[in-house]
Design goal:
Elements: E1 5-19, H1 22-31, E2 38-52, E3 56-60, H2 67-75, E4 82-87, E5 91-94, H3 107-117, H4 122-136, H5 151-163, E6 169-173, H6 181-196, E7 200-204, H7 208-214, E8 217-222, E9 225-231, H8 232-245, E10 268-269, H9 272-275, E11 284-288, E12 296-297, E13 302-310, E14 316-317, E15 319-321, E16 325-334, E17 341-349, E18 354-359, E19 376-384, E20 391-402, E21 407-421, H10 446-449
Parallel strand pairs: 3-7, 3-8, 5-6, 6-7, 10-14
Antiparallel strand pairs: 1-2, 1-4, 8-9, 11-15, 11-21, 12-21, 13-16, 16-19, 17-18, 17-20, 20-21
Helix pairs in contact: 3-4, 3-5, 4-5, 7-8
Protein name: ABC transporter ATP-binding protein
Organism: Pseudomonas atacamensis
Keywords: ATP-binding, Nucleotide-binding, Transport
């Protein structure tokens, strides 16, 4: 295996034997005949891919697609039926929460047991013990049996151990989903630093934002087979599109209806003119209206006709200034009756990371709206546009019906509106929140006055 490859998964197949009744398993072993009392279930079929050093690869797929089985084979806790996995470096894995821990042992005892399983000597664990406990922040519970731990405490201890193994490859399977927000952020900072140090990360998560933020590429599994491999943004968006479309009948949408043609001749205004002499750090955001929308899907019960940005007085905008109020206007037509329409939007950066968004569900929770077939509807979101670092952004819009947790997508459009940040602002982070006031002044203490 080449030195620049961390993991090479080569034609992996995994079949499980299933028996209708438990004693059939013993009977099969006893009779040793050619008659099979079992059925073979193909969990993985011809899985092949390479992960290069310093790369972060996400594995996505619906429940039962084979993600956890694949990770167990990569980590060596499960044997493949055929094929091979080649790893170049020490692997530390955080698979099923609490796996590798003895519930009767204390936290200290499990640190030693888990550390030795991961390849550390007793002396190495001794030298890192204080740091492991400190990182986990459960010092007051470390001498108690882990069966008394909450799921969050389990995750803290397990992650702390793998963080101190000094492995070249980390494999994490959904474990971070149970941690409290503070510790999850701590883990994310560790993973970001791990990546910067050239570590290789294999991550399974249902959190599409985590996948697009952390991962360079993504492997999409479906029914034990590879559906797609590619960059994280493209594959994740395709996966989400497939996920929603399989919950309902897929309907390919057309481009803009003639209903929106009336907007073509409206004049745009440029509000930058009012502020052009007042600041050289102004965040100028150009709005680009694509001739054709990005990916579209839905069951066809509604059709989005137009997506625009306007001032409070209704004038169309071609430019927005970061920190100024904007009205995002979404027009749609009800192709069928919709009992509880939900209109929403998401602003994403060029990597597909969701920065912010909202929908109408909570606003009309007590008094749901109803649409009749053929009616035209309009939804407006009024908000202050965040300050955006230089680069391209896009707005995804959708119309659904149902509830926040259980809904059907009627019409979904990616890249309905493109925003190009033309100037660099002093704000840092993914987005900048406009400040109402910033002050810096010398504080004279009472002691000094006395």
């Amino acid at each position: 295996m080449k030195d620049d490859i961390s993991i090479h998964v080569d034609a992996i197949y995994k079949n499980f034997l299933t028996y209708d009744k438990p004693f059939y398993r013993l009977l099969q072993m006893a009779i040793r005949s050619s008659k099979s009392l079992f059925r073979e279930h193909a969990a993985l079929t011809d899985i092949s891919f390479k992960v290069y050093k310093g790369q972060t690869v996400g594995i996505i797929g619906r429940n039962g697609s084979g993600k956890s089985t694949l990770l167990q084979i990569i980590c060596g806790t499960l044997n493949a039926t055929s094929g091979a996995v080649h790893a170049n470096g020490r692997i530390a894995a955080l698979l099923e929460l609490g796996s590798g821990f003895n519930p009767e042992f204390t936290g200290i005892e499990n640190i030693y047991m888990s550390g030795q399983v991961l390849g550390l000597t007793t002396a190495e664990i001794d030298s890192r013990l204080d740091s492991i406990i400190s990182f986990s922040e459960i010092e007051d519970k470390i001498h108690q049996p882990v069966k008394t731990y909450s799921s969050g405490m389990f995750m803290r201890l397990a992650f702390s151990v793998i963080a101190h193994v000094e492995a070249q490859i980390l494999v994490i399977d959904e474990a971070l989903a149970v941690g409290d927000a503070y510790f999850v952020q701590k883990c994310m900072r560790f993973l970001d630093d791990f990546k910067k140090r050239g570590g290789t990360l294999l991550l399974v998560s249902h959190d599409s934002t985590a996948i697009t933020t952390l991962c360079d590429s993504v492997v999409w599994l479906e029914s034990g087979k590879i559906r797609a491999i590619g960059d994280s943004k493209t594959v994740t968006q395709e996966y989400l599109k497939d996920y929603y479309s399989k919950q309902q009948s897929f309907a390919q949408q057309e481009d803009l209806d003639s209903d929106s043609s009336a907007n073509e001749n409206e004049d745009f205004i440029d509000p930058r003119l009012e502020l052009i002499k007042h600041s050289n750090l102004r965040n100028d955001l150009q709005l680009i209206f694509p001739e054709s929308y990005g990916d579209k899907f839905g069951n066809g019960a509604a059709k989005i006709l137009d997506v625009r940005a306007r001032t409070n007085s209704g004038e169309l905008l071609s430019w927005i200034i970061g920190g100024e109020t904007v009205n995002l206007n979404i027009k749609f037509k009800a192709i069928e009756r919709i009992d509880n329409p939900i209109v929403g939007f998401i602003l994403r950066n060029k990597n597909g990371v969701s920065l912010f968004g909202d929908n109408t569900y909570l606003t009309y929770f007590d008094e749901p709206r109803h649409t009749n077939q053929g009616e035209l509807w309009e939804c407006t979101f009024e908000f202050k546009m965040p300050i955006l670092p230089a680069g391209d952004y896009s707005i995804t819009v959708a119309v659904s019906d149902g509830t926040q947790e259980n809904h059907r997508v009627n019409d979904w459009i990616d890249d309905a509106l493109i925003i190009r940040s033309e100037s660099v602002n002093v704000a840092s982070g993914l987005i900048g929140i406009p400040m109402r006031q910033i002050t810096l002044r010398k504080k004279i203490s009472e002691a000094t006055n006395g």
